[in-house]
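The data are quoted verbatim for completeness:
=====
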Amino acid sequence: MHANRGDRLVVHGRTVGHHDKVVEIVEVLGPNGDPPYRVRGEDGHEAIMSPGPDSVVRHGRATDIGTGR
């Protein structure tokens, strides 16, 4: 998994009724774009994440996420 600052990390819901969680990558802490990442949620909360296989990096600008691009 490779990401850059400003990309979005989408963590897919694991069970019925749990929606995908989308967070912004604000800092890449691993070498060459690898995890872990410092991320920020819509509510402003920041955390360090090492995403698992249920996660996808969406490259691009923040405005692209809302449109599904």
In short: The chain is about 5% helix and 35% strand. Helices lie at 62-65. The CA atoms of residues 38 and 48 lie 4 Å apart. The longest strand covers residues 21-28.
